[in-house]
User: Which sequence fits this backbone?
């Protein structure tokens, strides 16, 4: 199984869980499988063309998949995948 | 410049450190730091930098203090409600350390004034709460070649990293553009544990001091994320993106502009904001 870290804004789709397990041979397959288990997740991560949204980063074992082979990046049991969206915040209310 | 006896006493715990010493303390005293936003992040940044003896702290914020700010914006006290944030900040900094020259700008940080505002400063701190402002600060620091310490907070989480323009990953290398407004519901559910602003802001202040002193390993090419619920820090490695729209090989961002979006449009699903 692959451990997937879910950021706060996406937790409503995982029943509040900050980590879920998934399967697949690549990041793309993993996202499809996660979406089957947690409907709606893919739309939050990917755009209409199925590409990962530009304000969301996906990291495999702390490496940005953009510098690996993107959605085709192979994953295997024991890997850890993190979904990291941009966050704002700091000053006002 | 030389220090008075009183200053030597005030800064003695810095001066005792071999990595700082009298020489490092002089670098601190000559440094100019620009803090964008005198709020949740700007408060701890400004207070610790003032205590450290930073020569000049520039503060820009167009807001007045609101009662709901006091839960985390520790520069401002109860009697300051309704007053200008930068004026309130200047008074607190003076009381803490009258050595510090505080320049205040009761203004919005915009594409047209950004370059002028940051020009005199050595390091810039991002203490703003909207994506458009975060991208604008990033872009301005890149064009001006100023090191930037980015911070963001959301609910129980915070994030911090430093950017040395042209050398390490910038905000756009990582997040090319703000989330589109379409994805976005309301602004009401977000909140923030006030002390998370303190944790992230004090790390920003630490990184600014390290950049000024040239000591240690800067928080560049890595994103430090903090989760207060778990009391856990996580580090994500990153690097410059050759396709970065700002600092990549074929940039499309060639001048300053502001993305159109309001903070409160951003509390949404895919990605987002707080305050």
Assistant:
């Amino acid at each position: 199984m692959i451990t997937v870290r879910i950021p706060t804004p996406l937790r409503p789709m995982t029943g509040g869980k900050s980590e879920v397990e998934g399967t697949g041979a690549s990041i793309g397959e993993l996202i499809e499988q996660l979406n089957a288990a947690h409907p709606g997740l893919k739309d939050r991560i990917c755009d209409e063309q199925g590409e990962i949204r530009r304000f969301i980063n996906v990291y495999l074992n702390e490496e940005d998949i953009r510098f690996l082979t993107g959605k085709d990046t192979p994953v295997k049991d024991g890997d850890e995948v993190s979904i990291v969206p941009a966050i704002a915040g700091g000053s006002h209310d | 410049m030389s220090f008075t006896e009183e200053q030597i006493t005030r800064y003695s715990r810095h001066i005792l450190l071999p990595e700082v010493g009298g020489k490092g303390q002089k670098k601190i005293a000559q440094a100019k730091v620009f803090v964008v936003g005198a709020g949740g992040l700007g408060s701890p940044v400004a207070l610790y930098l003032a205590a450290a003896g930073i020569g000049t702290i520039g503060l820009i914020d167009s807001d007045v203090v609101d009662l709901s700010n006091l839960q985390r914006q520790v520069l401002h006290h109860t009697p300051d409600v309704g007053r200008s944030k930068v004026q309130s900040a200047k008074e607190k900094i003076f009381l803490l350390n009258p050595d510090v020259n505080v320049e205040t700008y009761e203004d919005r940080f915009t594409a047209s004034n950004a370059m002028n505002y940051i020009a005199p400063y050595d390091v810039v701190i991002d203490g703003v709460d909207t994506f458009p402002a975060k991208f604008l600060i990033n872009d301005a620091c890149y064009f001006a070649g100023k090191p930037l310490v980015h911070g963001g907070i959301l609910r129980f989480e915070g994030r911090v990293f430093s950017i040395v323009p042209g050398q390490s990953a910038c905000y756009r290398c990582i997040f090319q553009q703000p989330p589109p407004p379409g994805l976005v519901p309301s602004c009401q559910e977000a909140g923030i544990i006030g002390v998370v602003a303190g944790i992230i802001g004090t790390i920003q202040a630490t990184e600014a001091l390290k950049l000024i002193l040239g000591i240690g390993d800067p928080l560049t090419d890595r994103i430090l994320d903090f989760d207060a619920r778990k009391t856990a820090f996580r580090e994500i490695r990153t690097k410059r993106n050759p396709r970065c729209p700002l600092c990549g090989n074929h940039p499309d961002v060639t001048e300053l502009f502001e993305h159109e979006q309001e903070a409160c449009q951003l509390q949404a699903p895919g990605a987002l904001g707080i305050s």
User: Anything to note?
Assistant: Residues 184-188, 263-275 of chain B have pLDDT under 50 and may be disordered. The two ends of chain B are 40 Å apart (CA to CA). Chain B has one domain: 22-266. The first strand of chain B starts at residue 32 and ends at 36.
